[in-house]
Amino acid sequence: MMGDAPGTMGMPFVPFMAMWVPMMAAMMLPAITPVATLWAGSISRKPRSVERVVRLMLFAAGYVAVWAGAGVLAYAMMRPVEIGAEAGLYSPRAAAVTVLIVAGLYQLSPLREDCLSKCRSPMSVLTVVTAGPVLLRDLRAGALHGAWCLACCWSLMAILALLGLMNVTAMVVLAVFVFAEKTSRFGVAAGRLAGLLMLMAAALTAVSA
Question: Domain range holding 147?
């Protein structure tokens, strides 16, 4: 099935983005709930306030915009890799091993763990985005949280790209992992374990027949 194919699945840019944006929004929705809930509580106590709805929509728009930008970058990076493999410049296995190694090493890096700590803490958004016009403040808050989320999750999305961006099983497993990593006390350990598994997968892929 096309959905189980790696990379862009041979899709043109516009259909790829039409698939990417809602898919990432669905996968990341559980993980952003703590921050979104806290942000919603800071806006208004009126349950049907128009202002509240608009500001929450702007928060979500800022978050989605970051992941949409990530989709553009992902497509721009994956297409040349696919073209090179199709031209015989290197094997798909070599490309897969490279992705697994890069993703695995990043999972184990201090930079990634620092980004995860920011993403796990709603206050990292609330304390930074406090100035400027109210509406832009909501947009910037969503974008900031999206940026922290992207910084600590891009390596997992790279693995999803290897397995197939529309591979439902992989999507569900990764969504559950992201939620647990960002909300449980085992988040850092889980991230490190994932990094080790990626490096093991790279080694097994490299030596497999």
Answer: 2-207
